[in-house]
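In this supplementary section we document a worked example of the pipeline. Step one takes a protein sequence of length 236 as its only input; no multiple sequence alignment statistics are reported here. Step two produces a three-dimensional model, which step three serialises into structure tokens for compact storage. The input and output of this example are shown verbatim.
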Amino acid sequence: MERLQKYISECGYTSRRKAEELILKGKVKVNGSVVKELGTKVTDADLIEIDNQILRKQDHSYFLLYKPRSVISSVTDDKGRKTVCDLVKSEKRVFSVGRLDYDTTGIILLTNDGELSNILTHPKHDVTKEYYAKVKGFFKKEDALTLSSGILLNGKKTKKAIFKLDRYDKKTDVSYVKVVITEGRNHQVKDMFNALNYDVEKLKREKYAFLDLSGLKSGEYRELSLKEVKKLYSLK
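The serialised model returned by step three reads:
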């Protein structure tokens, strides 16, 4: 037997944390009855439904996408905007591992493996994400040290990070900054820059753990190799 939220994630419907939200909202049925207890345990013999869709465990798929601008990191969008799942042709339902903002570009992973998604997004595993930011103004050394040491965002201090000026374009008064973080809060990189009055004009995620965008153009994707998947699992 296993916990209901883990079973849902292993069916590839969504991540474990999102599955917990669905359970608490009363969206999940077990053998015809709505279940709201996170501790509920099930087996393969039980009938699990979400929005009248019966869940079954399936083989896992893993994709690395070079996300373009103006694409939302979601399975669907009620505003009709293009999603990352629209760009990846998969016979199986997949979802994004974490998110990138609508106007942020770069590497994002998609899978139906809820267990791996949980490993990569859980705060205790400190998976590195590397960004390249274009910000207005000259990025001062003291501000780089401040952000790297951690600042308060919404009442909670950010973990140690790396903020390093790559180059400054005096003509356009724009700085290009390399950023490495291990957290995954919503809008974190932008919010950290904004906290010190820097406007982010462009943001690109160039690496996720050991994975990068080599060989891909914006909007393109590839499947992960078995070796890469095993290496991602080893990050826990």
